[in-house]
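Write out the 3D structure for:
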Amino acid sequence: MWFNKNHPDALYTDIRKERHENYGRVCDVNPDVIADFTELPFEDESFYLVVFDPPHMKRLGENAWFAKKYGRLFPTWETDIRAGVEECMRVLKPNGVLIFKWSDVEISVNRILDVINHTPLFGHSTGNSLKTTWMTFMK
């Protein structure tokens, strides 16, 4: 997603800091801030732009490479994703923009929209089979 992951205005958060190696592949999860997206450690109205790219898969095993690289959803995923979007909205300044990325391999975009209870301004599907949707919300 990043053109420049080290851009000085980017702040990367993740709940974990880990390094995994498997058959020559390396996955280095090294966030600037370790935080749960349901309880972000930022003050209200801190950012003009937030990009929310949560885990999308719920049927991955804990040791699956995809889970190690991107994380996985828990049985509480509906509550977690709803709380994550609300946290994103909380830390956005008035008129701030939320970009929300979702891959509907296991859970449809329509289901996610029902769960988060917000309507995007616009969005776009990408990927070989158009399974990834980028949605734009404004506070």
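Residues 44-138 form a domain with the Rossmann fold fold (CATH 3.40.50.150).
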